[in-house]
User: What shape does this take?
Amino acid sequence: MITRDVNVGAVADLALSPPRAALAAVDDGEILLLPVHVTLEEPPDPASSTRIVQLPAGSADLTDRPVVVVADDGPQWFRLRSLTIRGTARALGNDTYRVTPDRIVAWDYGALREVPDRPATPDRQPAAVSAAAEQEDGPALDSPKLQAAVDKSRVMVLATRSRKGTAFAVPLWFVPHQGRLYATTSASSWTVRNLAATSRVALLLGGEGGDKGSRLLVHGSARAVLAMPPPEVLARIAWRYYLRPRFAAVELSHIGLWLLRMRYYGQSRPAYIVITPQTATEHGLPQAQV
Assistant: This one.
């Protein structure tokens, strides 16, 4: 089995000084996704330390709500890393919360390696997920702000919710095509499973590499297709993430991991997400408490 998963210590910098962080939750049935400022209550223990999470001023009250906090870095494939914690928000006042990790997941594509096989679990195809590429997605937002953010960004944070109302968030590559955003994943991913429950999604653009500029919050609908993306989308992915000089240089420096990557992708059935943006709102960053 090929895995990207690592222990928290391997990505400790994402806990101690995350270049970008976001929080996802469900508020009255709607997906809430916000840029946040995160610090550790006990920096020597990045794995189990309680997170102090500050939201933008005037955010919804999340007291005692289950939340997901994601820190990520990238954007080249072998430099994509993520640290995700799941816990309950305990209010501290001034849009700030303590979140003690109930579950924590860390991954790093640059640490791709073979590990002993786990018991096989076949991919499950939710009844509401399409196996066909052709489907009417409805009108998409035509916005200069959205276009500018899409052109500048390389990794979005995508949030979905489960049938039980639990939020899930993950950093993903994406490409624009005919007014939609396309992202690849596996058929067994939580993103695909959640889209069987509801097509509503939220995504954040901006903030990559520690950029302190505003974020663009996009709400819309999405569907999952259990197949490889269309050829024109694959071509866009190849150019955007593999063939451009600064990406190609990283690819060549990791040539020894190419075979592992092929085996990693071969472990699960491919799928892709088609996102139809419907609204886009700028969000400033929360001001760090001193």
In short: The chain has six helices and 16 strands. The mean pLDDT is 92. The longest strand covers residues 270-283.
